[in-house]
Amino acid sequence: MKRNARLLGLLLVLVLVLGSLPLFALAEAAEFDISQPVELQIYLIGGPARDYDMVLEKLNEKTKADLNATVNINWIGWGDFQTKYPLILASGEPVDLIYASVWTQYYAEAAKGAFLDLTELAPKYMPKSYAEITPDFMQQATVDGHLYGIPAEFYQFGMMGYILRGDLMREYGFEGISHMDDYGVFLELVRDNNPEMSPGDFIATSDSLEGMLWREHGFQEITFPLVYDVREEHPKVVNFYEEAYILDFFLKMKEWGDKGYWSKSVLSNKDENAYASGLAASRIHNQDSWKSSYIAHPEYESQFFFLSPYSIKTQAMQDGMAVPASAKNPERALMLLEKLRQDREYYNLLTYGIEGLHFEVTEQNTLNPLDPEGFAPEGYCSWGFKEHKFFITPEGMPDNLDEVNAKLEEMAIVNPFVLFTPNFEPVKNERAAVASVYQQYAKPLIYGYIDNPEEGYKTLLMQLEIAGIKEMQAELQRQLDEYIASLAE
Amino acid sequence: MKLFQPRRNAIKMPASTVVFNVAGYLLLSFFAIICLLPFVFLISASFTSEKAIALSGFSLIPKEFSTDAYRLLFRNPTDILRAYGVSGMITLSGSVVGLFIISMTAYVLSRPYLRYRYQITFYFYFTTLFSGGLLSVYILFVRYLGLKNNYLALILPLLVNVFYLLIMRSFITAIPESIFESAKIDGAGELTIFLRLVLPLSTSALATIGLFLILDYWNDWYHAMLYMSDYKKFPLQYMLYNLLSASEAIARLSRTASISVVEVPSRAVRMAMTVVATGPILLVYPFVQRYFVKGVTLGAVKG
Amino acid sequence: MNNFLMEMKKNRMLYIMLLPAVLLVLLLNYLPMAGIILAFKNFRYNLGIWGSEWAGLRNFRFFFLSGTGWMVTRNTILYNLINLLTTQLLAIIIAIVLNDIRGRLFKKLSQSAIFLPYFISWIIVGVFAYNIFNYESGLLNGALKALGAKPVNVYAEPSLWWLIIPSFNAWKWVGYTSVIYIAAITGIDPECYESADIDGANIFQKTFYITLPSIRTTIIIMLLLSIGRILRGDFQMFYQLVGNNGQLFSATDVIDTFVFRSLVTGGDLSMSSAATFYQSVLCFLIIVLVNGVVRRVDPDSALF
Q1: Smallest CA–CA separation between B95 and chain A, in Å?
Q2: Tell me: the pLDDT tens digits for B62-83?
């Protein structure tokens, strides 16, 4: 017994001594203790290029020399990131660096304790990149006073709009869209002149005309159908379906549906590629999709029209990288991130591949992909550290791109509520029920399935109420008020 | 009606047998055709150019013959071949071990003199009703068993299938008890009876459950999705599943200008993937069929 | 206690043979069952499953909030019952026919053909279904128009799906299920048939008095196994055939699709655990009841 106690004491002392050693070492060698070789576990979304191993080998030569670390990339497939992404974070599996974005639920995951607080680590281990984060982006990435993710320093003025086939527009002598009804005219022209095509690429999961409607009225989405107008000084959380013009819209959609502007089976259609494969003459999507379809199909001469009264900057955490709470080597992970954002060679490797083999920079300073099958530029989740300073414009962009960009910038307003990230936890049940009601009762109205839209509209309102939209509205209004009050302080 | 007229030397076929055969032929032909047709469409579509599918839908014979879909799939043939290897290895080892454990357990649970057989069966059955959910299983596999990127993570979850266990038990129950009793009198132990009597007497049952296990392992992409992040260890189905599901997700997000450069698989590719993935496993079935011949098993032992 | 030791001693070898399966199930199924409590927790990653605070029944609320919970529970049970009857019945008939029909080659070929649907994933079945049923260019309406009939909008007519879904389900599973019955029939002692032949029994009499009674245990086991899953819907089948088509939900929404749709935005592990737990409890109650009845009537066929 006595001997055991002594042994225990000895062990304790040993643990204390050993435990404090690295601390001393760290204090002395400042931020760069890289004597221990490590393997960094990184999770990205998507799948690797054919030549990704080749690229990674090059990268690892560099990281070995610079950081005494090797990089191991793990992929979360496109089809299962909704299942696997939260699972990896929830399970506490050791991961050093992970792609993070609003569409991977950055704020919800951060609130659940998924990420490591980088407030102190980031300035120490990635000083340059940290200094480059603009104040508004810094604020946006911060949750409850903790910096949980490093946003890519890249933004644009996001906009949803109508993408139309320019070649058809010319053929019909169609001028452009300045009102939703103009789009109806276009759909009719396609129906009458090109019956082999579907006028639009409407499918149940895509953004529909309803999305254009609330954007036209200057709303931003909190969680649909709850929206608010960020131009107001003290905005109200609005149930979009209680707006006066909604019934007229549903009636119009019934009319359009009956006229055959879209398939009567649209709600079960899953063909997402109709526009790209030349089967649809238009689609509703953002300016990025417009650009990409322009590059992929120059012969369509795709045109882009938008009716929203203003544009706002894309969110900071549209793209970013985070260090999970389970990370074993957060310091080295941040040092790698610094390299990726400050060293063009690092950046190019993971973004464009190997120079001369996968890409070259033309004399006009545009990017010419040499082997898109081996490594497609920006194709492999390099968005989390996307940098304006290293970005090379791809070849074949739309002619009027600068014009459109200038217009979007001119229309831009500052969204004072960009930092308002609602906590849905208190109303998660209502939110789930409303999401289900939306699919069941609103979608059929949006596509004119319901023979009697007045009746259908009443049912929708009633079902939303049963699902608890009022409670949700009240709770979100309360949170918004609280946020506004905190701004005043 | 000449077809069914009994020939003079042939054994006379009773009217009921004729009715049975006519009805049987009609039913089976009808059902076989509706099962076969979609597969023919599928193969045909996999050899059709995407443009032709888009414009005129599916057809029995390719409207515009093209091997583009297969060329796209086999763009990197070593990947596909390696994935075939992984799938084959997992299928083989998993189904052999699984079949042995399942049949051995089923034999024990079929013994009427095993006092706790109902309780133990319930112990197994209960797991089909309640499960701890994705997260706790994931934590167990990844953090406690350390099976990330380990082939065992693909083998273990499908090893003891309780449904198969119970079906197997019902097959073994059907074997006359007298056969085992006489063996016992000859001094055979339980393990010997299982190995020497039960296994050879249950070839058709073993073939059935073995077939199901083979199919389960071959078709499983789900566990690979969970536990495999190393591209080189992906089984075939998961690789194909990735391609298959990518287009939907990419379309849903389609965020950056350059994402369109990554190829979005077309309908033809989806069809070709099914053909590539099911190809070898289709050959297993006729092989297993040999064991479904009436009366072979019991007769052999008795004789 | 004494009884227990005696039993262990008497059947020692049998219990040893059980060990691998018992241990595997203990490790892979029972150990993670601790995760069930997630359904009653307000789960935070950094606090872990145990450390997170209790939420009572809060995670279950969304299910009943809009009244949809009852509808989808009803749909799930009804579909499972219809599918169970159609698929099992067809599989048994086909197994019997395949067993007794003349013509070896036909037998082999048709048996292989009916197995094929198993290999076609629901994603692809969904693509085909859309090509058959869509209003404007589907095969069905093409045929109807050619016959001079009025086209139907299958994707806006919920009642039709009570026919369509069981048909697709049978199409996909009959071949697979029939294999089990074929194997069961294979195991029947041929002497039974020989003596029936001597008695002059015809083929239908042999089917009803020998074949069916001999595979009774297998039939009942298959039915019980299906009933044990009566609250679980085949998500892929419903989702790929119907999609997010709200117009059809009154007839096509099952628990699994409803939960998916509700939680796809802002998905919450605790809430999906709650839904799974609800399914498990109902399945458990139903199967214990049904199995109890079977055990009284026919103890050999009971599951446990």
Answers
A1: 27
A2: 888 888 888 877 877 888 889 9
Instruction: Count up the domains in chain B and report the number.
Output: 2
List B residues 66-95 in contact with C (Cβ-Cβ < 8 A). Answer: none
As for how many domains chain C has, the answer is: 1
Please answer whether residues A154 and A387 qualify as being in contact, where contact means their C-beta atoms are separated by less than 8 angstroms: yes
All residues of chain A having their beta carbon less than 8 Å from the beta carbon of residue B241 are: 77, 79
Task: Indicate whether A113 and A46 sit together in one domain.
Answer: yes
- Pick from B55, B76, B256: which is nearest to A383 by CB? B256
Does C263 contact A432 at a Cβ distance shorter than 8 Å?
A: yes
Contacts of residue C189, defined as CB under 8 A and 6 or more positions apart, other chains included, come to B176, B295, B298
Which residues of B are less than 8 Å from A377 in CB distance?
A: 258, 261
Q: How many residues does chain A have?
A: 489
Residues A299-338: pLDDT tens digits?
A: 999 999 999 999 988 888 889 999 999 999 999 999 999 9
Please choose, from the candidates A162, A159, A158, A141, the residue with its C-alpha nearest in 3D space to the C-alpha of residue A150: A141
Q: Is the residue at B2 inside a domain?
A: no
Out of B166, B278, B295, the one facing C190 most closely (by C-beta) is: B295
Give the torsion sign (CA, C61, C62, C68, C74).
negative
User: What mean pLDDT is predicted for residues C109-138?
Assistant: 89
Percent of chain A past pLDDT 90, that is, above it, reads: 55
Containing structural domain, residue B87: 76-302
Q: Which residue, A299, A328, A352, sits at the end of a domain?
A: A352
- Phi, psi at residue A340, to the nearest 5°? -60, -30
Asked if residue C21 belongs to a domain, the reply is: no
Distance CA A269, CA A277 (A): 15
Instruction: Give C193: exposed, middle or buried? Use CB within 10 Å, 0-12, 13-18, 19+.
Output: middle
Find the CB nearest B28 among C11, C97, C185: C97
The chains in contact with chain B, meaning 3 or more Cβ pairs closer than 8 Å, are A, C
Query: pLDDT digit string (tens) for A141-157?
Result: 998 889 999 999 888 78
Residue B120 shares a structural domain with residue B156: yes
Using the Cβ of C13 and the Cβ atoms of chain B, whether some distance falls under 8 Å is answered with yes
B167/C171 CB distance under 8 A: no
pLDDT in tens, B189-227: 999 999 999 999 888 899 999 999 999 999 998 999 999
A367 found inside a domain: no
User: Rg for chain A (alpha carbons), in Å?
Assistant: 26
Please report which helix (H) or strand (E) contains residue A359, including its range.
Answer: strand A359-361
Task: Determine the structural domain holding residue C151 and report its residue range.
Answer: 57-301
The DSSP bridge pattern shows strands A146-147 and A226-228 to be: unpaired
Residue of C nearest to B57 (CA): C131
Structure token pair of residue C128: 């085909």
Assembly ipTM: 0.91
Residues A111 and A183 in one domain: no
* Residue (of A403, A216, A412) closest to A314 by Cα position: A412
Does residue C59 register a pLDDT over 90?
no
User: Is residue C18 one of the residues assigned to a domain?
Assistant: no
Domain span at residue A299 reads 160-201+271-310
> Is some CB atom of chain A closer than 8 A to the CB atom of B177?
no
Question: Do the beta carbons of residue B289 and residue C111 sit within 8 Å?
Answer: yes
A78: distance to nearest CA of chain B, Å? 5
- Residue type at B11 in one-letter notation: I
How many alpha carbons lie under 13 Å from residue A403 in its C-beta half-sphere?
A: 6
Q: Which residues pair with A355 in a beta bridge?
A: A359
B54 plus B179 within the same structural domain: no
Using CA atoms, how far residue B198 sits from A185, B193, B213, C21, in Å, is: 75, 6, 19, 18
Q: Which helix (H) or strand (E) holds C122?
A: helix C122-133
Contact present, A260 and A479 (Cβ < 8 Å): no
Which positions in chain B touch A84 (Cβ < 8 Å)? 225-226
pLDDT in tens, C181-217: 999 998 888 888 888 989 888 999 999 999 999 999 8
